[in-house]
Design goal:
By secondary structure, this protein is of the alpha+beta class. The chain has helices at 2-13, 34-85; strands spanning 109-112, 137-141, 161-164, 169-172.
């Protein structure tokens, strides 16, 4: 069968089979084709497009959890201060052993309702029914956007991590 094919190729093309221009040779195992490399790049890109948003969501959740833990620690330090001095401090700088910043790099926010700050009533954080979140002080992180407004229903307050209900709730303002 092979000799008949050689003769046929030689008759049709005028060349022996070994020098036929369209002859397919067995590929050596010395590398990848451009098509194979492009397919690998496409698969890697698809996997990255799927994984990256999930990774960012996990990182953001971990930051919220870290801020929640920090707020609980700060509230505990506030209670220690109240026990020792029979009053709440005017600012967080009077406390020791508290984290200097939230996970997003912003300062934690604290407002003592009993301090003599002018216009304090307008700074007190409120829920969707416009009731104060706490009875004696506000404590919160401004979240990822670093902005906040007094009513937690405001768009810039939805990502805030709050200490509300005098400690019965610590978490995202959007979940309160």
């Amino acid at each position: 069968m092979v000799s008949r094919r050689r003769r046929l190729d030689t008759i049709l093309t005028g060349m022996p089979v070994s020098s036929h221009p369209f002859q397919f040779r067995a590929r050596s195992a010395s590398g990848f084709t451009l098509l194979e490399l492009m397919m690998v790049a496409v698969v890697a890109g698809v996997l990255l497009a799927i994984a990256l948003p999930s990774y960012r969501k996990i990182i953001e959740h971990q930051k919220v959890v870290a801020a929640t833990v920090d707020l609980a620690k700060i509230a505990q330090e506030l209670e220690k201060y109240r026990t020792m001095h029979s009053a709440l401090p005017d600012s967080l700088s009077e406390l020791s052993g508290i984290p200097p910043q939230d996970p997003w790099g912003n300062a934690y926010q604290y407002l003592n309702f009993g301090s003599g700050i002018p216009g304090i009533k307008g700074k007190i954080r409120k829920d969707h029914n416009l009731h104060p979140l706490n009875s004696e002080f506000d404590l919160y992180s401004m979240g990822a956007d670093g902005a906040s407004v007094a009513p937690i229903t405001g768009k810039s307050s939805q990502d805030d991590v709050i200490w509300a209900g005098d400690g019965s709730f610590i978490g995202l303002a959007s979940d309160y």
